[in-house]
Amino acid sequence: MRPARPADAPEIAHVQAVTWRTAYRAVLPLEVLDQWDEAVATSAWHAAVTSPPTPGHGVLVALERQTVVGFAAYGPAELTEGEQPHPGGPSTELTTLLVEPRWGRRGHGSRLLSAVADLARGSGAARLQTWLLEPDSVSAGFFESAGWEPDGWARTLDTGAAPLRELRWHALLDDDGTGGPA
């Protein structure tokens, strides 16, 4: 586990493409998956690593034998319209956490989540949040096992095909820097 480097961008884009095509084939519109442009994704991940929008944004990678097998991206959370700030302090949003399916069940996701929690706590965040596709029971189970829970917020994404509904999950950061249910 380490911060992503610019040279990791092609591997990050590859992990994203393989994971989306494998784990989300039944959820994401086929047009999105079939029109995936790995060069565009590589460029976007390179920019995320080299020119993050704020100092609070970052990308971490999980490695197995020096190969990038997963990654997590995070940054300061934005308030949803009508939402009040968390009374305990700011929130960090986990924007993406993916582990290529063939490398799953080896602890990479848990280590990525723990590292993001440590970084968030170190920056003064009191809470972590992420958005999960409503039908994604595998990710929901992962986050639930780590002490996360839905917080009642939902949003709908326009994909150009059928809209996708996402639910927001969250965990408060304890004094020791670990997430736990709110």
Automatic annotation (TrEMBL):
Matching SUPFAM superfamilies: Acyl-CoA N-acyltransferases (Nat)
Keywords: Acyltransferase, Transferase
InterPro entries named in the record: Acyl_CoA_acyltransferase, Bact_Acetyltransf, GNAT_dom
The protein's name: GNAT family N-acetyltransferase
N-acetyltransferase domain location: 1-174
Pfam families referenced in this protein's UniProt entry, alphabetically: Acetyltransf_1 (PF00583)
UniProt entry tagged with the keyword Acyltransferase: yes
UniProt organism field: Blastococcus jejuensis
